[in-house]
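Lab channel / #folding
Pinned by the channel admin:
"Please post every new chain as: sequence first, then the structure tokens as a reply. Keep commentary short and put observations after the output so the thread stays searchable."

First post following the new format, from NK:
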Amino acid sequence: MQELLQQRDKQVLFLVLEKERLKRLEPLLTLAKQAKIPIIVLDAALFKEVAVSETPQGVLAVVKIPTHKNFSEVLETSPACVVVMEEIQDPSNVGAIIRTASAVGASCVFYTKGTADPFSPKAVRASAGAVLNLPVIKIENLLNLTPTLKEKGFKLVATVVKGGEDLFTFSFPKKTVLLLGNEAKGLSAEGMVASDYKLTIPIIGKVESLNVAVAAGIVLYQWLIQRFYIVKT
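Reply from TO:
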């Protein structure tokens, strides 16, 4: 919250604070006043009514949903890694993927029609606020995006449960797009055809597949290891 209040683009429209916790929230109160952000103070009972979580922590922020230029212009500044979510329906998965993408330094996240709203309360909480720091852009479907990606030199990497290249022996292309599909159905036929590479995460135990957010985390950190921690000779 402190980082959000300190941003110069003034995404926070106003703060709502719980009266009984004002002393503990004094640092946030000071930042909000310095940024000239309006503050509303509510008693505990009323604050609980407006809070969306079961265990609110005494502070809420009403924030503008970030807007971004068209995806072609966003890709001009994308150095290496882009994530695409196709029809991922669980908002917790959506938020967790955005959080991990931000953590590894991905440039942006695209999401298709049919994907859970990344700006819903559950997804925002799961993203730990990363949805406000990383460009998250809606597209109609993969077919609207793939020609532009390929024109700009990106290679599309799909995650598949079986039959793909072993993640841990795979060499990521210089400009990578990670395609992540629906929890039940996986990536669409169009996404599979468009992909340049297919990756499989080895599974040793008796499970059929991994949660999509967990799989995304494993793949993205393997990409990070190759990009920043392996010295190539």
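NK: The longest strand covers residues 12-18.
TO: also worth noting, DSSP finds nine helices and ten strands in the chain.
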